[in-house]
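STRUCTURE REQUEST FORM
Protein name: Olfactory receptor
Source organism: Vulpes vulpes
Requested output: structure tokens
Priority: standard
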Amino acid sequence: MRNGTITTFILLGLTDDPELQVLIFIFLFLTYTLSITGNLAIIILTFVDPHLKTPMYFFLKNFSFLEISFTSAIIPRYLYSIATGDNVITYNACVIQVFFTDLCGVSEFFLLAAMSYDRYVAICKPLHYVIIMSNSVCRILNICCWVAGLCIIIPPLSLGLNLKFCDSNIIDHFGCDAFPLVKISCSDTRFMEWTVIICAILTLNMTLTCVVLSYAYIIKTIFRFPSVQQRKKAFSTCSSHMIVVSITYGTCIFIYMNPTAKEKVTINKVVSLLIFSISPTLNPFIYTLRNNQVKKAFEDSIKRIALLSTK
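Status: completed
Returned output:
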């Protein structure tokens, strides 16, 4: 973003109403605290509990790390703005915020695809699971998710760095985001807008195709199981991931694939707030409350801490 005379931006946030701002601050502070606590708990459990050393929990650990990074890139800054009334963000800070939110957001989609492939191998090829999903393969898949995310965001980001801001520096959003920045630019942004949309469609199509194909084979395999108990167990291992996939894809498709959503600024901001606050908060609870192994690992950890504190 070649800023010329503009070196700072002003973030309008969600509202100017002081009472609503207090409610938003409390809501965001609670959801952010729960998000960090829940995702950190999952990361710690996967490190300390020997039963959670499988590929499934390796990916879950990395997904939790992405969630922490994603929400931390924007929510603390917005909380600071509400608390202090300082809505000014520097040009460089804005660029960094766009980079990290986009990188973590896009990488999450590829990681969700990798997690669906892991479930496919576990259910459809159980005898070869340990060989196919070895430690080295899991690490390579995780690195590929980050690299893919970086490759996807480089084209629109490089175009964004050439945007000019002449008259307005007021961003109608609570954080730096592609579409609000494009809206206030005095450059011809049509090519960049199309690049953002194409990259979003490319990401969604590639990852969603992988997810849909994986679960199509999973469901087909599950229905072949002879006993109801086996089917229930197989569905329970996938249900948490399917819920998270539905939430993540649903909200992002609303923003990037729905043309009218870009015109309805308020709706767009509210949906973005849900993506940055609610989703990272819900995800650890979805995975833990529906997963007996994680619950048992958590209970065992609490018992160990209680024993250590009594000594």
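Reviewer notes: The first helix runs from residue 18 to 48. Confidence is low (pLDDT under 50) at residues 259-263.
Form closed.
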